[in-house]
Protein backbone atom coordinates (compact mmCIF):
# COMPACT_ATOMS: atom_id res chain seq x y z
CA UNK A 1 0.00 0.00 0.00
CA UNK A 2 1.74 3.10 -1.26
CA UNK A 3 -0.38 6.08 -2.23
CA UNK A 4 1.24 9.18 -3.74
CA UNK A 5 -0.43 12.29 -5.04
CA UNK A 6 2.91 13.80 -5.96
CA UNK A 7 6.30 13.82 -4.33
CA UNK A 8 6.00 16.47 -1.63
CA UNK A 9 7.99 19.64 -2.12
CA UNK A 10 9.76 20.17 1.18
CA UNK A 11 12.85 22.20 1.96
CA UNK A 12 14.96 20.33 4.49
CA UNK A 13 18.08 21.83 6.02
CA UNK A 14 20.42 20.33 8.59
CA UNK A 15 20.75 20.47 11.54
CA UNK A 16 17.05 19.87 11.64
CA UNK A 17 14.26 21.00 13.95
CA UNK A 18 13.58 19.92 17.53
CA UNK A 19 10.81 17.37 18.01
CA UNK A 20 8.85 17.25 21.28
CA UNK A 21 7.52 13.90 22.46
CA UNK A 22 4.94 13.40 25.20
CA UNK A 23 6.25 10.20 26.76
CA UNK A 24 9.80 9.07 27.38
CA UNK A 25 9.52 5.29 27.56
CA UNK A 26 11.04 2.80 25.15
CA UNK A 27 9.13 4.22 22.19
CA UNK A 28 10.45 7.69 22.91
CA UNK A 29 13.94 6.25 23.31
CA UNK A 30 13.88 4.47 19.93
CA UNK A 31 12.31 7.54 18.30
CA UNK A 32 15.18 9.69 19.57
CA UNK A 33 17.69 7.11 18.32
CA UNK A 34 16.14 7.21 14.85
CA UNK A 35 15.82 11.01 14.75
CA UNK A 36 19.48 11.70 15.57
CA UNK A 37 20.94 10.65 12.17
CA UNK A 38 18.40 12.95 10.51
CA UNK A 39 19.82 15.90 12.43
CA UNK A 40 16.63 16.10 14.52
CA UNK A 41 16.93 16.68 18.26
CA UNK A 42 14.30 15.29 20.62
CA UNK A 43 12.98 16.61 23.94
CA UNK A 44 10.70 14.28 25.90
CA UNK A 45 8.13 14.84 28.63
CA UNK A 46 7.88 12.09 31.23
CA UNK A 47 7.13 11.91 34.98
CA UNK A 48 9.85 9.32 35.66
CA UNK A 49 13.20 10.91 36.56
CA UNK A 50 15.90 9.84 34.10
CA UNK A 51 13.30 8.05 31.97
CA UNK A 52 14.41 5.47 29.35
CA UNK A 53 14.53 8.11 26.57
CA UNK A 54 16.58 10.57 28.63
CA UNK A 55 19.94 9.01 27.76
CA UNK A 56 19.45 9.51 24.01
CA UNK A 57 17.16 12.56 23.84
CA UNK A 58 18.55 16.09 24.02
CA UNK A 59 16.64 16.75 27.25
CA UNK A 60 13.73 15.70 29.43
CA UNK A 61 10.94 17.82 30.84
CA UNK A 62 9.99 16.08 34.07
CA UNK A 63 6.24 16.13 34.61
CA UNK A 64 2.99 14.24 34.15
CA UNK A 65 1.77 13.59 30.61
CA UNK A 66 -1.29 15.75 31.19
CA UNK A 67 0.24 18.45 33.40
CA UNK A 68 -0.59 21.82 31.74
CA UNK A 69 2.60 23.61 32.77
CA UNK A 70 4.86 20.71 31.78
CA UNK A 71 3.23 20.38 28.36
CA UNK A 72 3.57 24.13 27.84
CA UNK A 73 7.23 23.97 28.85
CA UNK A 74 7.73 21.27 26.22
CA UNK A 75 5.82 23.15 23.52
CA UNK A 76 7.89 26.29 24.11
CA UNK A 77 11.11 24.42 23.30
CA UNK A 78 10.21 22.51 20.14
CA UNK A 79 9.21 22.95 16.51
CA UNK A 80 6.68 20.10 16.39
CA UNK A 81 4.92 17.87 18.91
CA UNK A 82 3.97 14.21 18.94
CA UNK A 83 3.25 11.54 21.58
CA UNK A 84 4.28 7.97 22.25
CA UNK A 85 1.60 7.20 24.81
CA UNK A 86 -2.18 7.52 24.69
CA UNK A 87 -2.26 9.04 28.18
CA UNK A 88 -1.51 12.42 26.60
CA UNK A 89 -4.36 14.92 26.95
CA UNK A 90 -5.85 15.81 23.54
CA UNK A 91 -7.59 18.94 24.86
CA UNK A 92 -4.33 20.24 26.29
CA UNK A 93 -2.46 19.42 23.08
CA UNK A 94 -5.03 21.40 21.12
CA UNK A 95 -4.52 24.37 23.43
CA UNK A 96 -0.73 24.44 23.13
CA UNK A 97 -0.94 23.89 19.39
CA UNK A 98 -2.76 27.21 19.12
CA UNK A 99 -0.91 29.05 21.88
CA UNK A 100 2.60 28.23 20.67
CA UNK A 101 1.86 27.73 16.97
CA UNK A 102 3.42 24.27 17.20
CA UNK A 103 1.93 21.54 14.98
CA UNK A 104 0.78 18.38 16.78
CA UNK A 105 0.73 15.07 14.88
CA UNK A 106 -1.19 12.81 14.83
CA UNK A 107 -3.95 15.31 15.49
CA UNK A 108 -5.38 15.70 19.01
CA UNK A 109 -8.77 14.76 17.59
CA UNK A 110 -7.36 11.45 16.37
CA UNK A 111 -5.92 10.81 19.82
CA UNK A 112 -9.31 11.65 21.35
CA UNK A 113 -11.00 9.10 19.07
CA UNK A 114 -8.50 6.30 19.61
CA UNK A 115 -7.90 6.55 23.36
CA UNK A 116 -11.55 5.62 24.03
CA UNK A 117 -12.03 2.11 22.65
CA UNK A 118 -15.80 2.55 22.38
CA UNK A 119 -15.48 5.75 20.37
CA UNK A 120 -12.79 4.10 18.26
CA UNK A 121 -15.02 1.13 17.43
CA UNK A 122 -18.03 3.33 16.66
CA UNK A 123 -15.93 5.46 14.32
CA UNK A 124 -14.76 2.39 12.42
CA UNK A 125 -18.24 0.90 12.30
CA UNK A 126 -19.73 4.14 10.98
CA UNK A 127 -17.15 3.97 8.17
CA UNK A 128 -18.26 0.40 7.27
CA UNK A 129 -14.92 -1.05 8.32
CA UNK A 130 -15.22 -4.64 9.54
CA UNK A 131 -14.99 -4.96 13.33
CA UNK A 132 -16.16 -7.48 15.92
CA UNK A 133 -19.67 -6.87 17.26
CA UNK A 134 -19.68 -4.97 20.53
CA UNK A 135 -21.82 -3.41 23.25
CA UNK A 136 -21.26 -0.52 25.59
CA UNK A 137 -20.94 -1.66 29.22
CA UNK A 138 -21.71 0.70 32.08
CA UNK A 139 -22.81 -1.86 34.65
CA UNK A 140 -23.36 -5.55 35.34
CA UNK A 141 -26.69 -5.64 33.52
CA UNK A 142 -25.04 -4.35 30.33
CA UNK A 143 -22.36 -7.05 30.52
CA UNK A 144 -24.92 -9.78 31.20
CA UNK A 145 -26.88 -8.67 28.14
CA UNK A 146 -23.73 -8.84 26.00
CA UNK A 147 -22.87 -12.34 27.25
CA UNK A 148 -26.42 -13.52 26.62
CA UNK A 149 -26.31 -12.16 23.06
CA UNK A 150 -22.73 -13.00 22.04
CA UNK A 151 -21.78 -15.91 24.27
CA UNK A 152 -18.10 -15.42 25.09
CA UNK A 153 -16.94 -11.80 25.08
CA UNK A 154 -13.80 -9.81 25.72
CA UNK A 155 -14.50 -7.10 28.27
CA UNK A 156 -12.31 -4.05 27.65
CA UNK A 157 -11.92 -0.93 29.75
CA UNK A 158 -12.60 1.96 27.41
CA UNK A 159 -9.46 3.87 28.37
CA UNK A 160 -6.03 3.24 29.82
CA UNK A 161 -5.54 -0.45 29.00
CA UNK A 162 -2.40 -1.81 27.35
CA UNK A 163 -0.53 -5.14 27.10
CA UNK A 164 -3.73 -6.93 28.04
CA UNK A 165 -4.29 -4.79 31.12
CA UNK A 166 -7.90 -3.68 31.28
CA UNK A 167 -8.98 -6.67 29.16
CA UNK A 168 -10.59 -9.83 30.53
CA UNK A 169 -12.49 -12.66 28.80
CA UNK A 170 -16.00 -13.43 30.05
CA UNK A 171 -17.40 -16.81 29.04
CA UNK A 172 -20.46 -17.11 31.28
CA UNK A 173 -22.85 -15.07 33.39
CA UNK A 174 -21.15 -16.42 36.52
CA UNK A 175 -18.01 -14.45 35.62
CA UNK A 176 -19.67 -11.04 35.21
CA UNK A 177 -19.06 -9.60 38.68
CA UNK A 178 -15.48 -10.84 38.86
CA UNK A 179 -14.69 -9.39 35.43
CA UNK A 180 -16.07 -5.97 36.35
CA UNK A 181 -14.05 -6.06 39.57
CA UNK A 182 -10.92 -6.88 37.54
CA UNK A 183 -11.23 -3.67 35.50
CA UNK A 184 -12.16 -1.62 38.54
CA UNK A 185 -15.77 -1.14 37.40
CA UNK A 186 -14.47 1.33 34.80
CA UNK A 187 -16.60 2.31 31.79
CA UNK A 188 -16.12 -0.52 29.32
CA UNK A 189 -17.19 -2.28 26.17
CA UNK A 190 -17.87 -5.96 25.54
CA UNK A 191 -16.69 -7.35 22.22
CA UNK A 192 -17.90 -10.62 20.74
CA UNK A 193 -15.02 -13.09 21.14
CA UNK A 194 -13.40 -13.63 17.74
CA UNK A 195 -12.26 -17.17 16.94
CA UNK A 196 -9.45 -15.89 14.74
CA UNK A 197 -6.81 -17.84 12.83
CA UNK A 198 -4.10 -15.36 13.70
CA UNK A 199 -3.60 -11.77 14.71
CA UNK A 200 -1.80 -9.67 12.16
CA UNK A 201 -0.85 -6.01 12.05
CA UNK A 202 -0.05 -3.32 9.55
CA UNK A 203 2.24 -0.43 10.46
CA UNK A 204 0.86 2.40 8.33
CA UNK A 205 2.36 5.84 7.80
CA UNK A 206 0.58 9.05 6.85
CA UNK A 207 2.90 11.71 5.46
CA UNK A 208 2.30 15.16 4.09
CA UNK A 209 1.07 13.94 0.71
CA UNK A 210 1.60 10.18 0.79
CA UNK A 211 0.55 7.04 2.61
CA UNK A 212 2.74 3.99 2.97
CA UNK A 213 2.59 0.67 4.81
CA UNK A 214 5.12 -1.87 5.96
CA UNK A 215 4.71 -5.56 5.07
CA UNK A 216 2.12 -7.50 7.05
CA UNK A 217 3.31 -8.87 10.39
CA UNK A 218 1.93 -11.83 12.33
CA UNK A 219 1.68 -11.33 16.09
CA UNK A 220 2.07 -14.11 18.64
CA UNK A 221 0.57 -13.43 22.09
CA UNK A 222 0.71 -15.21 25.42
CA UNK A 223 -1.21 -14.05 28.49
CA UNK A 224 -2.52 -11.12 26.40
CA UNK A 225 1.04 -9.83 25.91
CA UNK A 226 2.78 -9.65 22.54
CA UNK A 227 5.71 -12.06 22.51
CA UNK A 228 6.84 -12.18 18.86
CA UNK A 229 6.11 -10.58 15.49
CA UNK A 230 6.83 -12.64 12.38
CA UNK A 231 7.38 -10.96 9.00
CA UNK A 232 6.20 -11.83 6.45
CA UNK A 233 3.02 -13.10 8.09
CA UNK A 234 2.40 -16.79 7.48
CA UNK A 235 -0.81 -16.32 5.57
CA UNK A 236 -2.06 -16.20 1.99
CA UNK A 237 -1.46 -13.45 -0.55
CA UNK A 238 -5.20 -12.80 -0.62
CA UNK A 239 -5.36 -12.24 3.14
CA UNK A 240 -2.26 -10.05 3.00
CA UNK A 241 -3.82 -7.86 0.33
CA UNK A 242 -7.11 -7.68 2.20
CA UNK A 243 -5.33 -6.63 5.40
CA UNK A 244 -3.50 -3.85 3.59
CA UNK A 245 -6.77 -2.63 2.04
CA UNK A 246 -8.46 -2.55 5.45
CA UNK A 247 -5.49 -0.69 6.93
CA UNK A 248 -5.75 1.90 4.17
CA UNK A 249 -9.46 2.34 4.94
CA UNK A 250 -8.58 2.84 8.62
CA UNK A 251 -5.96 5.47 7.82
CA UNK A 252 -8.48 7.42 5.78
CA UNK A 253 -10.54 7.88 8.97
CA UNK A 254 -7.65 9.31 10.97
CA UNK A 255 -6.33 12.85 10.81
CA UNK A 256 -2.71 13.82 11.20
CA UNK A 257 0.70 12.67 10.09
CA UNK A 258 2.63 9.86 11.72
CA UNK A 259 2.87 6.12 12.22
CA UNK A 260 -0.19 4.07 13.15
CA UNK A 261 -0.14 0.52 14.48
CA UNK A 262 -3.25 -1.27 13.19
CA UNK A 263 -3.99 -4.61 14.86
CA UNK A 264 -6.19 -6.98 12.88
CA UNK A 265 -7.83 -10.40 13.24
CA UNK A 266 -7.75 -12.90 10.38
CA UNK A 267 -11.01 -14.84 10.62
CA UNK A 268 -11.29 -18.49 9.42
CA UNK A 269 -13.04 -17.36 6.23
CA UNK A 270 -10.21 -14.93 5.41
CA UNK A 271 -12.16 -11.85 6.54
CA UNK A 272 -10.14 -9.15 8.25
CA UNK A 273 -11.52 -7.47 11.38
CA UNK A 274 -9.96 -4.46 13.08
CA UNK A 275 -8.98 -5.12 16.68
CA UNK A 276 -7.33 -1.90 17.89
CA UNK A 277 -5.37 1.09 16.60
CA UNK A 278 -2.41 2.89 18.13
CA UNK A 279 -1.66 6.45 16.88
CA UNK A 280 2.10 6.00 17.30
CA UNK A 281 4.91 3.52 16.67
CA UNK A 282 3.86 0.10 17.89
CA UNK A 283 5.46 -2.93 19.52
CA UNK A 284 4.55 -5.03 16.49
CA UNK A 285 6.67 -2.70 14.34
CA UNK A 286 9.94 -3.02 16.26
CA UNK A 287 11.16 -5.52 13.65
CA UNK A 288 11.46 -2.64 11.16
CA UNK A 289 14.65 -1.32 12.80
CA UNK A 290 16.73 -4.12 11.27
CA UNK A 291 14.17 -5.72 8.97
CA UNK A 292 12.98 -2.83 6.78
CA UNK A 293 14.70 -0.21 4.66
CA UNK A 294 13.34 2.53 6.96
CA UNK A 295 12.29 1.89 10.56
CA UNK A 296 8.88 2.83 11.90
CA UNK A 297 10.61 5.31 14.22
CA UNK A 298 12.42 7.15 11.46
CA UNK A 299 9.17 7.17 9.49
CA UNK A 300 7.34 8.72 12.43
CA UNK A 301 9.89 11.52 12.74
CA UNK A 302 9.78 12.17 8.99
CA UNK A 303 5.99 12.14 8.90
CA UNK A 304 5.43 14.40 11.92
CA UNK A 305 7.87 16.93 10.49
CA UNK A 306 6.25 16.78 7.06
CA UNK A 307 9.38 15.37 5.40
CA UNK A 308 9.34 12.80 2.57
CA UNK A 309 8.77 9.26 3.79
CA UNK A 310 11.29 6.44 3.41
CA UNK A 311 10.88 3.08 1.69
CA UNK A 312 9.02 0.41 3.64
CA UNK A 313 10.41 -2.65 1.82
CA UNK A 314 11.36 -5.76 3.78
CA UNK A 315 15.08 -6.54 3.76
CA UNK A 316 14.68 -10.22 4.66
CA UNK A 317 12.43 -12.52 6.71
CA UNK A 318 12.48 -11.05 10.22
CA UNK A 319 11.24 -11.92 13.71
CA UNK A 320 11.21 -9.58 16.69
CA UNK A 321 10.76 -11.02 20.18
CA UNK A 322 10.11 -9.16 23.42
CA UNK A 323 12.40 -9.55 26.41
CA UNK A 324 10.05 -9.63 29.41
CA UNK A 325 10.70 -9.60 33.12
CA UNK A 326 11.04 -13.19 34.34
CA UNK A 327 11.04 -12.30 38.03
CA UNK A 328 8.39 -12.87 40.69
CA UNK A 329 8.64 -9.38 42.19
CA UNK A 330 10.20 -6.02 41.35
CA UNK A 331 13.97 -5.74 41.60
CA UNK A 332 16.83 -3.72 40.05
CA UNK A 333 17.22 -4.66 36.39
CA UNK A 334 20.31 -6.68 35.51
CA UNK A 335 20.11 -8.82 32.38
CA UNK A 336 22.22 -11.99 32.21
CA UNK A 337 23.16 -14.04 29.13
CA UNK A 338 23.71 -11.04 26.88
CA UNK A 339 27.05 -12.25 25.49
CA UNK A 340 25.46 -15.27 23.83
CA UNK A 341 22.89 -13.13 22.03
CA UNK A 342 25.53 -10.64 20.88
CA UNK A 343 27.64 -13.48 19.47
CA UNK A 344 24.81 -14.76 17.25
CA UNK A 345 24.90 -13.76 13.58
CA UNK A 346 21.85 -11.87 12.38
CA UNK A 347 20.56 -11.20 15.91
CA UNK A 348 20.29 -7.69 17.38
CA UNK A 349 19.53 -6.73 20.97
CA UNK A 350 17.64 -3.58 22.02
CA UNK A 351 17.75 -2.57 25.69
CA UNK A 352 15.11 -0.10 26.88
CA UNK A 353 17.06 1.36 29.80
CA UNK A 354 14.49 0.66 32.50
CA UNK A 355 16.06 0.63 35.95
CA UNK A 356 13.58 -1.80 37.52
CA UNK A 357 12.36 -5.15 36.24
CA UNK A 358 8.88 -6.35 37.17
CA UNK A 359 6.97 -9.52 36.23
CA UNK A 360 6.32 -9.54 32.46
CA UNK A 361 7.47 -5.92 32.06
CA UNK A 362 8.86 -5.18 28.60
CA UNK A 363 12.56 -4.59 29.13
CA UNK A 364 13.85 -4.87 25.57
CA UNK A 365 13.58 -6.92 22.42
CA UNK A 366 15.71 -8.90 20.03
CA UNK A 367 15.46 -9.04 16.26
CA UNK A 368 16.49 -12.04 14.17
CA UNK A 369 16.99 -11.34 10.46
CA UNK A 370 17.17 -14.20 7.97
CA UNK A 371 18.41 -14.80 4.45
CA UNK A 372 17.21 -12.22 1.87
CA UNK A 373 16.82 -15.11 -0.61
CA UNK A 374 13.80 -16.12 1.43
CA UNK A 375 11.97 -13.25 -0.25
CA UNK A 376 13.15 -13.95 -3.79
CA UNK A 377 10.05 -15.86 -4.86
CA UNK A 378 12.16 -18.15 -7.08
CA UNK A 379 11.49 -21.28 -5.05
CA UNK A 380 14.99 -21.39 -3.54
CA UNK A 381 13.76 -20.67 -0.02
CA UNK A 382 10.19 -21.00 1.26
CA UNK A 383 9.39 -17.79 3.22
CA UNK A 384 7.16 -19.75 5.61
CA UNK A 385 9.98 -22.16 6.43
CA UNK A 386 12.39 -19.25 6.75
CA UNK A 387 10.29 -17.44 9.35
CA UNK A 388 9.49 -20.67 11.21
CA UNK A 389 13.22 -21.25 11.69
CA UNK A 390 13.75 -17.62 12.67
CA UNK A 391 10.91 -17.75 15.19
CA UNK A 392 12.41 -20.80 16.87
CA UNK A 393 15.83 -19.12 16.93
CA UNK A 394 14.42 -15.88 18.38
CA UNK A 395 12.62 -17.78 21.13
CA UNK A 396 15.79 -19.68 22.01
CA UNK A 397 17.74 -16.43 22.31
CA UNK A 398 15.07 -14.80 24.48
CA UNK A 399 14.95 -17.88 26.70
CA UNK A 400 18.73 -17.60 27.18
CA UNK A 401 18.29 -14.17 28.75
CA UNK A 402 17.26 -13.82 32.39
CA UNK A 403 16.89 -11.24 35.13
CA UNK A 404 16.50 -13.92 37.78
CA UNK A 405 19.49 -14.02 40.09
TrEMBL record:
Native source species: Halogranum amylolyticum
Single GO biological process annotation from the record: 'de novo' IMP biosynthetic process
EC numbers: 6.3.4.18
Record note on quaternary structure: Homodimer.
Domain of life of the organism encoding this protein: Archaea
Residue ranges the record marks as coiled coil: none
Keyword line: ATP-binding, Ligase, Magnesium, Nucleotide-binding, Purine biosynthesis
Pathway: Purine metabolism; IMP biosynthesis via de novo pathway; 5-amino-1-(5-phospho-D-ribosyl)imidazole-4-carboxylate from 5-amino-1-(5-phospho-D-ribosyl)imidazole (N5-CAIR route): step 1/2
Residue intervals of the ATP-grasp domain: 121-305
Protein name according to UniProt: N5-carboxyaminoimidazole ribonucleotide synthase
InterPro entries reported in the protein's UniProt record: ATP-grasp, ATP-grasp_carboxylate-amine, ATP_grasp_subdomain_1, PreATP-grasp_dom_sf, PurK, PurK_C, PurT/PurK_preATP-grasp, Rudment_hybrid_motif
Annotated binding of ATP, by residue: 117, 156, 191-194, 199, 221, 275-276
Keyword presence, Magnesium: yes
Amino acid sequence: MQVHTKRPTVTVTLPGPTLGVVGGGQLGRMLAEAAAPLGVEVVVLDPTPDCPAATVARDQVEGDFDDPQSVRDLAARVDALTFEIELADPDLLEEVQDEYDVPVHPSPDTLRTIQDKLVQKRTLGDADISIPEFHRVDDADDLRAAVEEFGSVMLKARTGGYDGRGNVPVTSLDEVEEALEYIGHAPAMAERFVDFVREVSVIGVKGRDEVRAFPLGENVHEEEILRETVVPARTSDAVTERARDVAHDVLEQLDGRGVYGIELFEAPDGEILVNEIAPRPHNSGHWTIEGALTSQFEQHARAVLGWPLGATDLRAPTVSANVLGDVESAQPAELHGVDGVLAADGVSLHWYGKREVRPLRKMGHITAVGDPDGLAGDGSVDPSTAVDDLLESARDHVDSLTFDR
